[in-house]
Design goal:
This protein is an alpha+beta fold and 66 residues long. The protein is built from two helices and four strands, in the order H-E-E-H-E-E. It is globular, with a radius of gyration of 11 Å.
Length: 66
């Protein structure tokens, strides 16, 4: 299972793109989506982390935890 793809399907960002070894999700509601991503990670025990949030770009970056 590709955890990052599952998160992208749930969140539906405008433009996901590769970023620093993970995926940057742009064009989203930061507060609501960050909470939703955190819940998906915790509930499913997925090895994924949020490693960067950029308010200016309205983006959240996620990657697999090594």
């Amino acid at each position: 299972m590709n955890y990052l793809d599952e998160i992208i399907k749930q969140v539906k960002p405008r433009s996901p793109r590769p970023y620093k070894g993970g995926i940057e999700l742009r064009g989203i509601d930061l507060d609501g989506i960050k909470y939703e991503i955190e819940n998906l990670i915790k509930e499913n025990n997925w090895p994924v982390e949020i490693f960067e949030v950029d308010v200016r770009l309205k983006s959240i970056s996620i990657r697999l935890v090594a």
